[in-house]
């Protein structure tokens, strides 16, 4: 079992903080249902700002595609 899956299971539904030690970047992994709920309460300006922060953090970097395989909605 990989470390990310172990961390998610150990969190028992709570957000999981992930640190990229190479870039010293911190991420928070939340369930898709929570993300959808947050999306529904944010206005478009807030969503734009968050997308830009993600882009600047390197989330559109092709090396991040490996995390897409961990999306439980794709199973």
Model description:
With 75 residues, the protein is an alpha+beta fold. It has 3 helices and 2 strands, in the order αββαα. The protein has one domain (3-74). A two-stranded antiparallel sheet has the order 1-2.
Task: Describe the structure concisely.
The protein is of the alpha+beta class and 75 residues long. 43% of the residues lie in helices and 13% in strands.
Sequence-ordered SSE layout with sheet pairings:
Elements: H1 3-11, E1 16-20, E2 25-29, H2 32-41, H3 44-56
Antiparallel strand pairs: 1-2
Descriptors:
single chain, two-stranded antiparallel sheet, globular, 3 helices, 75 residues
Multimeric organization? single chain
Q: Give a quick account of the main beta sheet: strands, pairing sense, barrel closure.
A: 2 strands, antiparallel
Q: What fraction of residues sit in β-strands?
A: 5-15%
Could you say which structural class the secondary elements and strand pairing correspond to? alpha+beta
N to C succession of SSEs? HEEHH
Give the tally of β-strands.
2
Radius of gyration: 13 Å
Low-confidence stretches: none
